[in-house]
Structure to design on (125 residues):
């Protein structure tokens, strides 16, 4: 059943361990996006506002269904209220890491957190 294990030499084990260490060290480096610096609020696909996360504030974004309220508090951002029927963007909660996004599709409003570096995702690949 495990006959192939007996065919491995000490050098084979060394190469496998080295490969696992390199993969383990590279994984966190490849997925970090830097610290969150600003929030980009879009309405209808256009940039409505760029907000610095170091300043606490609340803004109202008009959309086809009504007003979406975006709140920044303690370097985090969230959609506090939205007139959309399912409230998915409100349930998204606080966004604090670069690359996170909340989309209020029925009201055509989105909030994205950006950092010093662009995050890696499947679309970047």
């Amino acid at each position: 059943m495990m006959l192939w294990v007996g065919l491995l030499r000490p050098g084979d084990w060394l190469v496998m361990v080295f490969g696992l260490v390199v993969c383990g060290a590279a994984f966190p480096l490849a997925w970090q996006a830097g610290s969150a610096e600003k929030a980009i609020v879009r309405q209808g696909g256009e940039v409505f506002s760029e907000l610095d996360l170091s300043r606490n504030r609340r803004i109202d974004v008009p959309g086809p269904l009504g007003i979406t309220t975006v709140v920044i508090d303690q370097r985090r951002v969230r959609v506090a209220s939205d007139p959309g029927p399912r409230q998915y963007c409100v349930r998204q909660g606080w966004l604090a890491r670069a690359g996170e996004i909340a989309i209020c599709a029925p009201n055509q409003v989105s909030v994205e957190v950006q950092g010093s570096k662009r995050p890696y995702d499947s679309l970047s690949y």
User: Anything to note?
Assistant: Residues 15 and 54 are 46 Å apart (CA to CA).
